[in-house]
Amino acid sequence: MTTHISGRKQSGFTLVELLIVAIILAILAAIVVPQFANTAAGASDAALRTNLSGIRSAVELYRQQHAQVYPGANASNTVVCGTGPGSGAASTGQAFDDQLTMYTNAAGVACSVQNDGGTLYPFGPYIKENAVPANPVTTVATIVVNTDTNLGMQSATAGGGWLFSTATGKFIANDTNTDAAGVRYDAY
Q1: How far apart are CA 11 and CA 6, in angstroms?
Q2: Do the Cβ atoms of 161 and 174 come closer than 8 Å?
Q3: 3-state SS assignment for residue 168
Q4: C-alpha 36 chain-centroid distance
Q5: CA 109, 112, 115, 116 torsion: positive or negative?
Q6: CA 15 from chain center: how many Å?
Q7: What is residue 23's DSSP assignment?
Q8: Helix or strand holding residue 51 (H, E)
Q9: Global confidence as pTM
Q10: Angle ∠(179,172,156) on CA atoms, nearest 5
């Protein structure tokens, strides 16, 4: 004997099943989204440390090749270079940028080519980009040059970017905010 059960065939999800799925997805999102936010902040902190290390190494190499004078201390535009000359006056962020990203002579005069009509610029470039990279935390590329010997030059100006002392060679982030561990960016 065969038994036939009559009833309607269910063709979708019940409201309870949909609510359970929505709640599970909300719980997963609450767990995962903060992880992505922390990862992004951690990535910019790591990028800041990497940029600081690279620029500090470039500054030290420049100093070794230029009679113990730091980049930015001398003008990068003293002698006119016919093909893309430097344009920074002494103790400016532009001179610092020119002297690290272009070819230079012993006096720190910068040129975009190594041999400009017989005038040699044998040193550099120390940074391969066309400019010193922006601070990855503030996304500002401004370089404030400080000629003071005060080692406590932390964030002398507002606005992000970088601070550099031509007297001491100290290169820091121009940012008093803190990372996830409570360390100020200008103390990196």
Answers
A1: 15
A2: yes
A3: coil
A4: 20
A5: negative
A6: 50
A7: H
A8: helix 15-65
A9: 0.76
A10: 95
